[in-house]
Amino acid sequence: MGLTLALILAALAAPFGLAQDLEAEARALRPADTPAQQAAVLDDLEQRARTALERIPRAATKAEADRARQPLRRRLEESLGFRRLPWPPDLQARVTGTVPREGYRIEKIVFRTLAGVWVPAHLYIPDGLAAPAPAVLFYNGHWWADSKSRPDFQAFLINMARMGFVVFSFDPFGQGERGVSARDHRRTEALLVGVSQQGIAEYETRCALEYLLSRKEVDAKRIGMTGASGGGYNTWITAALDDRIAVAVPVVGTSDFLEQIHVTRALDWYKANEHCHFVPGLIQYANNHELLAMAASKPLLIVAASVDQSFPIAGVRAVYEYGQQLYRSFGAGEKIGFFEDRAEGHGYQKAKREAAYGWFLRWLKNSGDGRPVPEPPTVTVPFDSPELLVFPGGRKEPAGPGIVEAMKRLAKDFKSPVSMEKLMGESPRGLPLTIGLQIARVQRVVFTTQPGMDVPAVVLRPGPEGGAQQAGILVAVDDRGKEALASDPLVVEALKRNWMVWTIDPRGIGELAIQKPGWVFAVSLLLGENFVWRQGWDIRRIVEFAATATATHRVGLYARGHNAALAATYAVATAQGSAPEWAALRNGFVSFRQFLERPRSMQGAALDREIPYEYFVFGALQWFDLPQLLASAKAKTFIVDPIDGDWDPVAPGPGLTTLEQFLRSDW
Fold first, then answer.
1. Domain span including residue 533
2. What span, in angstroms and rounded, lies between the C-alpha atoms of 184 and 605?
3. 3-state SS assignment for residue 515
4. What's this model's pTM, rounded to 2 decimal places?
5. CA atoms in the 13 A half-sphere facing the CB of 176
6. Does residue 290 sit in the same domain as residue 425?
């Protein structure tokens, strides 16, 4: 803290004793443990996810599935956003080497998806093909270092080639030879322009499919697809959307979505290290059952594990049982199968591979009855064997920089205005707010902003005993929690000017801090909403109520910290009726574009300098940026000591102010 500001703080605090005394009194009012209040935030999300999934109409017959297919596909494509990326792709594919093996060969392929984004791949080709052969596209799940060369995956590819299939496997972005890091895979920036992480996966899958279909060795009418975990999920998505996939074998890829949401709550959805399963708005119109209905009635084998932490087996069985009934209505009951590995869990182990062999042989080669085919002894090599490396010299080719540049190109122009609720999600059902105020310097109160959501607050009154005449009410929120505001210079100055101050903890902050931020982000995105928007809704409700609680009807809003400032931006921009007279947003971001322009923080694989994923609004930069929101606000807004995308202070300039300047101004 600079000397000047320290002197200001000391002078302002003098009338009330030390500012720290106020903070100590505020902290003394805070309950020692607040697990119930914190759980309420998570309970609210899980219940709304349940409600959304339960109201999805489910096709029970062929006629219903046929009617629903195209509308569902359109909505899924919008949620994925891959149609926003260039098409057809300029693949510029080339063969960089060939590995001869007994009965087949591996061609090492490089192809391009986006400008500057190169994909290493392996094409397994049987020896002695006399005519175009059936082919299988293999999408690798989230196995970071080994990816396309993982020994279990090698075994599948080898044996499929020996059985007469052409098989194509490539490294997803951020995996294998493409810059091994969750950070390089988790391209959160794409959300801002309406492209989800699974949308990038789908786009690259389509690019790979284009290459596979270009090969003379491949019969375009006999294309299958498989993959495990995230690859299994990608198989579900692609089979649901693309009829060029004739046969699908998703392996340990997903389950009933509500079960998945419930079981990953305790796990914080693996800290949201990857976001492929977080398809924006998906659970408003589709469960796994709807993905199955979109794919019906192409041959589909669901491969699961009895014990799989992420995908509870009961939910997978329920999806299969639904599929049996639906396929029977198509007259195609034999085209859906289910294999449950009772010996091994998550992965593509031998028993799962054997089930896939039999299914692909039955439906792509008309050989056998679809039951598992034993795998012969198979020799694989270490994943990092030089003979398997596609890029020369063992170098990595990270996909992130090229993907980010593509997203910047999509963020150039805004469309016409759109309803904020269309982007952020419907507002909660509000309740009338009431509190009982006492004549006391410090008082704890609670605002119930929606059923089950109690927002705790501390009321600070001006004057030694809290009895001074009020100039208005200042509603204040801080990333550090409401108690820290009692000694904040701006709050101290407000009290000196006879403003009553309500310091609040909206959901996710202070007393309501969430211990499962990855899960909260995931479920919010699946619901098609933004969690920070909901924080802003809590703030807005209290600001609007404050206008009715003071005789002067003067209300100010102060938000300190990047989370609080962003939430307050939404509150100010959407305030109805009794908007705040002024708002001071301190130490926050000033533009979504800062999340794309991060020259220092974009370097390397570390996640410690990431922008919190909950700040990214799906599709926002198609419609608006933060300056446009604030320009339409009724309140006079002050941007105080903002930060940039690298977390550094922004130099003073037009429309910006410093804390010292604001403390001296007339407000």
1. 421-664
2. 7
3. coil
4. 0.94
5. 28
6. no
